[in-house]
Amino acid sequence: MTNQYPHLAFEIHEQSLSNKVILVTGAGDGIGRTAAITFAQAGAEIILLGKTVNKLEKVHDEILEMGCKQPCILPLDLRGATESDYEGMASTITGQFKRLDGVLFNASVLGNLCPFEQIKASEYEEVMQVNVNSQFLIVKALLPLLRQTALASVAFTTSSVGRSGRAFWGAYSVSKFATEGMMQVLADEHKNSTLRFNCINPGATRTNMRAKAFPAEDPKTLKTADDIMPTYVYLMSDISRGITGQSLDCQFK
Ligand SMILES: NC(=O)c1ccc[n+]([C@@H]2O[C@H](COP(=O)([O-])OP(=O)(O)OC[C@H]3O[C@@H](n4cnc5c(N)ncnc54)[C@H](OP(=O)(O)O)[C@@H]3O)[C@@H](O)[C@H]2O)c1
């Protein structure tokens, strides 16, 4: 019988991602930080994109200390970045690396959890800007480079509230539905190519965002970011070639 969940059983080794160049957004903290370090340990060259430079520098140094390939830091605040910033980013990546094998869209903000009518327009706009619009502009800028690379993989980060709307999860929930939709449109447009687009749902994971959403919860009851990495490496590795348009869960319900 075939394994229905090969991503959960995936075993990461030090060459799972060798010779790959992977961009990780929100690489300074939480799941993005762990993903950047794990991808580097699996042999990839990592472009660390994030807002807080000293967090990115720490991840950069940690990766170097482990003896992995030197990562590159790309400081960018997704809230204020414009189309021309992303075009500049794409030119820098093209000039420096000449290829891009993977993108992990991980950076997000939660916004305030409250009744819909109490969401401030400015908060709604910020959540949509960081969680959705930036992804649109980054994908647009990077598609020409991704198309030139054999077996490139783009992974977006979703949530259970991006599949089923939940009271009080407001703009965040809407942004994750939009993320699932963006992934599906791109996957369908590229169904005859080797470029693949999927979503990852981390499930409840011990990070600052989870603590903000569930302040009364004991974080020790949650999976850590390290625990959920098999799905992340699986989607970035060539093992998942041909997998596209899917939304994968990192944890069993
Ligand atoms: N943790 C969970 O239980 C859970 C469950 C389902 C889905 N997710 C999703 O998983 C992903 C990672 O979440 P997490 O729990 O690791 O969250 P987190 O700990 O809050 O980390 C979020 C990351 O996004 C970055 N970021 C936020 N605003 C940014 C901006 N304007 N520009 C650039 N980077 C920005 C942060 O950078 P700074 O630290 O510099 O602000 C940080 O690196 C998110 O997409 C989240 O929606 C998480």
TrEMBL record:
What are the entry keywords? Oxidoreductase
Cited InterPro entries: NAD(P)-bd_dom_sf (IPR036291), Sc_DH/Rdtase_CS (IPR020904), SDR_fam (IPR002347)
The protein's matches in PANTHER family, at most eight in alphabetical order, are given as: ALCOHOL DEHYDROGENASE (PTHR42901:SF1)
Q: Which NCBIfam families match?
A: PRK08945.1 (NF006509)
User: Which family does the similarity line name?
Assistant: Belongs to the short-chain dehydrogenases/reductases (SDR) family.
Its recorded name reads YciK family oxidoreductase
Name the species this protein comes from.
Glaciecola petra
